[in-house]
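Sequence design from tokenized structure. All designs in this work follow the same two-part layout: the structure record, then the generated sequence. An example of the structure record is given first.
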């Protein structure tokens, strides 16, 4: 039996949500009617105003991927290369380190970053782009959320950064916000980041 965590993906244009489960080995499973799940017996939920409140599984405090008031962050090993910053860099809530920086939060912000890049892309057709970097034109069909799910399933290069950072966070190593100069450098990379450069960097790190 695999463990999985629940995530909500939301279209930046129309606000339409899509719910997925991300398993412990980083497999994404779309949530649909009739999907069978097992809830741990100690994961009790209370109710308040008819809305479920689960203290052991609180909603992640995520941020918009292009929120300029957010906190840019990447692991130290990714700060010496613009390409690595493009791949590993995310924007975190301002209080991420005070409240506890988790691998789930990083995973969610990474996923939201990729969706944003897909939604904002206005260049050549996605199948052409995926064929250029991964010889995988079949990954470019559908809405951004569906493209992401296909990418996640077929591209180990896309999953690897999340797995590496998750191991770093879960190891218990102390992590801190970036120094101002590095934060500004990373923010500059994230602001100008486009899908083609992100995919190019992913392909080079494979």
């Amino acid at each position: 039996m695999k463990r999985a965590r629940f995530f909500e993906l939301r279209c930046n244009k129309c606000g339409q949500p899509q719910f997925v489960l991300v398993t412990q080995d980083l497999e994404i499973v779309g949530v649909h009617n009739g999907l069978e799940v097992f809830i741990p017996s100690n994961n009790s939920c209370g109710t308040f105003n008819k809305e479920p409140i689960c203290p052991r599984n609180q909603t992640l405090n995520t941020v918009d991927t292009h929120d300029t008031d957010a906190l840019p962050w990447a692991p130290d090993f990714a700060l010496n290369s613009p390409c690595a910053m493009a791949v590993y860099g995310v924007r975190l809530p301002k209080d991420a380190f005070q409240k506890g920086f988790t691998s789930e939060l990083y995973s969610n912000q990474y996923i939201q970053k990729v969706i944003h890049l897909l939604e904002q892309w206005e260049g050549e057709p996605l199948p052409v782009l995926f064929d250029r970097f991964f010889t995988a034109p079949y990954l470019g069909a559908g809405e951004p959320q569906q493209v992401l799910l296909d990418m996640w399933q077929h591209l180990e290069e896309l999953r690897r950064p999340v797995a590496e950072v998750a191991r770093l966070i879960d190891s218990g190593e102390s992590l801190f916000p970036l120094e101002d100069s590095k934060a500004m450098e990373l923010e500059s990379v994230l602001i100008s980041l486009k899908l083609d450069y992100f995919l190019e960097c992913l392909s080079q790190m494979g």
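The CA atoms of residues 19 and 34 lie 14 Å apart. We note this feature because it recurs in several other targets discussed in the main text.
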